[in-house]
Design goal:
alpha/beta, 727 residues, 7-stranded parallel sheet, 46% helix, Rossmann fold, 6-stranded parallel sheet, 29 helices
Length: 727
């Protein structure tokens, strides 16, 4: 147990004020990168060390399993063992499983981890569409209704009040019918969903005095992280846990409120001092994460927005100066993606770890171009929100092998060396394979386990393989994955709570940031906050980029995001002038020189295209659209993302080359033997102006029934962390 006063030495004056305010309601307004997690964990540890707080009587709640896992780790290092740090759902589910048999009777109904199948069945009964996109939107609407605690009959008025359009173009009255049908399907299946966990816990505590006394007797003090993202349902649970008491510390940033579409509201944070008379407020504004250049741009975004009820949290940079943010314009999306990939390659070749780089976009559909560009550049990447780390086959296999090895380990064995030896039995080596793809992905997963063993041995001297296996089990339960060595590709929403040395915010055009369906002033301002979140993820290198056209040679009708107005006067532009595009359209194709700029062609891909990769294309736009329509139908039939069939870059090349034979088709980048066999006849027919003749058997894709409404904040579902505490 560290000395209580020693815990305060690592804090700045404002953080120290947080740590030493141990009683009564406390509201911490913490800007991005200001050390809020350090402040609240030091507060808990200082309270425990000074005897004011009993660790078993403290409950810290947050929104993601990753954040809860990080908090538990920090508290353990600070000596505050026994404090419960969990997600809202994990804490509620543990209580519900304990009290349900005692006060309701019987076992708690099974929890469905994925509600897509239930939503699809409900929609089918009402003769609604049940394709994957529609089911996803309907599931999100059901969740919104439940977390905002909206009665079914009040849905039309509640949605209209916040200018929320009904999903899938449905009439609001049909959504009401869907809500009732969904509840009926759950009752018939005798199951509950994640929102029910919170609702039932609230009900049990409110209706059963014994339950209320037990829970409130267990937890005397609450700490709530990311309080700006609390929903009415989560606040109702907090109220029941407190039972009229005010021993609560909340931490949040109104400038990072980006989940109102999912039912979150900053009103509880902004109205905290009105709700709790005498509440103390502390502001953290010293930014330890980002350089002054990044902080200055973030502050410009904040000051351009209307001032909120608590004014603005303008950050004060604490780091040494760094490079100026790179605001850059490109001719088209492929050119933008290639520039990002080349810049990432420069950074990683200069010694920056790929895991310290992120490419952030507004929608997941934008990732395709960057996946291909990074793969072409030989840069490993990780798509955040894809398959969960501990669900990967190689990770499951490695855990089994490590568990077996732990049974016969020698207590004197070196942990990192032992783990590397076990992993080598799975074909892993210390040297990464060349290029990207599935082989590299497998290597990166196993390498993350090896690095985790090294980190654990450095922190816990004498840690054994059994200790490491136990750590993996706890992390798997909480979905607290180790860092995988690859560039992170993620949506701006999924990037919340994370940080990197270098961040590329891409596709920053009006219509994307803010997104086109953000119509009301409140919705537009939330989009501004989303860009603010992206900007403040960067420690040192920040680039914001946009493209004038979607595809090479397309109409340059886009403009940079309105949020960048006044910031991009000195924008670097890689977009060719209109005259260059016009000259390029009349140049004669030649195998040795670029038909656009006349430069000699040396790269094989460039020779195939007949132009430099950075020069605008003169492809057949009508053919491109026909191929795109065909691709969409193939993707729908197979229930796969469109890029799995062909990427946009490949479609562009096809529309440019117009292959007329299998040999010419195979020469196009992105068309291999498998795709030639599967799609060749269709593509050649379309290029010849004919109707496609080949078909693809749809088959059965189990992904259709997978729930896509996992935790919006992290890409993983909430889970319960094991511990000795009854509740």
């Amino acid at each position: 147990m560290p000395d209580a006063d020693a815990l305060l030495e690592m804090l700045d004056p404002e953080q120290r004020e947080v740590a030493t305010t141990l009683t009564g309601p406390l509201c911490v307004l913490a800007g991005a990168g200001t050390g809020k997690t350090r402040a609240i964990t030091a507060r808990i540890a200082y309270g425990v060390a000074s005897g004011v707080l009993v660790p078993q009587r403290v409950l810290a709640v947050t929104f993601t399993a990753r954040a809860a896992g990080e908090m538990r780790t920090r508290l353990r290092v600070l000596g505050a063992t026994g404090v419960q740090a969990r997600t809202f759902h994990a804490a509620a589910l543990r209580q519900l499983r304990y009290f349900w048999p005692r006060h309701v009777g019987g076992e708690l109904p099974p929890l469905v981890e994925h509600k897509a199948a239930l939503v699809a069945e409900s929609a089918g009964r009402l003769r609604l569409a049940t394709d994957r996109a529609t089911v996803r939107d309907l599931a999100a609407e059901i969740e919104w209704v439940k977390v905002t605690m909206t009665d079914h009959d009040d849905y039309p008025a509640a949605a209209a009040k916040v200018a929320r359009p009904a999903p899938a173009g449905l009439d609001p009255a049909m959504v009401v019918r869907l809500l009732s049908t969904y509840d009926q399907v759950k009752r018939e299946r005798h199951v509950i969903d994640f929102e029910d966990v919170l609702l039932y816990t609230v009900g049990l505590i409110a209706e059963h005095r014994q339950v209320a006394d037990a829970v409130r007797g267990q937890y005397h003090h609450l700490v709530v992280d990311e309080y700006q993202d609390v929903s009415p349902l989560q606040q109702a649970l907090l109220d029941q846990w407190l039972g009229g008491r005010d021993e609560m510390c909340v931490v949040g940033d109104p400038h990072q409120t980006i989940y109102t579409f999912a039912g979150a509201t900053p009103d509880f944070l902004l109205g905290f001092r009105e709700r709790y008379a005498g509440a103390k407020e502390v502001r953290l504004v010293r930014d330890y994460r980002s350089t002054p250049q990044v902080v200055a741009l973030a502050n410009r975004l904040v000051t351009a927005a209307p001032a909120g009820r608590h004014g603005r949290l303008e950050l004060v940079a604490q780091r040494p100066p760094g490079p100026a943010p790179d605001l850059r314009e490109h001719a088209d999306e492929p050119a933008e993606a290639r520039w990002v990939a080349s810049r990432v390659r420069e950074l990683t070749d200069g010694g920056l770890a790929p895991s310290e780089v992120a490419v952030l976009f507004r929608t997941n559909g934008q990732s395709e171009s960057y996946e291909q560009a990074l793969a072409d550049a030989g840069v490993p990447y990780v798509l955040r929100g894809g398959e969960r780390f501990f669900d990967r086959p190689e990770v499951r296999e490695a855990r089994l092998m490590l568990r077996g090895a732990a049974r016969s380990e020698d207590e004197n064995d070196d942990l990192p060396e032992t783990v590397r030896g076990v992993l080598s039995g799975s074909g892993w080596s210390a040297t990464p394979p060349e290029g990207a793809g599935a082989v590299r992905d497998r290597w990166e997963s196993l390498a993350a386990l090896a690095r985790l063993a090294e980190d654990m041995a450095a922190v816990h001297i004498g840690a054994s393989l059994r200790d490491f296996v136990a750590e993996l089990d706890e992390r798997a339960e909480a979905q607290h994955a180790p860092t995988v060595e690859g560039v992170t590709l993620a949506s701006l929403h999924a990037a919340k709570g994370l940080e990197w040395d270098a961040v590329f915010v891409v596709g920053a055009t009006d219509g994307m940031i803010p997104i086109t369906y953000a119509q009301t002033p409140e919705q537009v301002e939330e989009e501004r906050r989303l860009l603010y979140v992206g900007v403040t993820r960067a420690r040192e290198h920040l680039a914001i980029s946009w493209s004038l056209a979607r595809a090479p040679g397309g109409r340059a009708g886009r403009r940079p995001s309105r949020f960048l107005d006044g910031m991009h006067a000195g924008t670097r532009s890689d977009a060719p002038a209109a005259g260059a595009r016009a000259r390029g359209s009349s140049r004669r194709r030649g195998p040795a020189s670029c038909r656009v700029c006349g430069s000699a062609l040396t790269a094989p891909v460039a020779r195939k295209l007949g132009r430099c990769e950075d020069c605008p294309s003169s492809y057949d736009e009508q053919l491109f659209e026909r191929l795109r329509t065909w691709r969409a139908e193939q993707a729908r039939t197979q229930s796969v993302p469109a890029y799995v069939v062909f990427t946009d870059a490949t479609l562009t090349a096809l529309a440019e080359v117009r292959p007329s034979s299998a040999t010419e088709l195979l020469a196009v980048s992105g068309v291999g033997g498998t795709k030639l066999e599967r799609y060749g006849a269709d593509v050649l027919a379309i290029c010849a102006g004919e109707a496609p003749t080949a078909t693809v058997s749809p088959g059965t894709n189990p992904d259709v029934l997978q729930d896509v409404t996992v935790d919006l904040r992290s890409g993983v579902k909430n889970s319960v962390a094991p511990d000795e505490d009854l509740l």
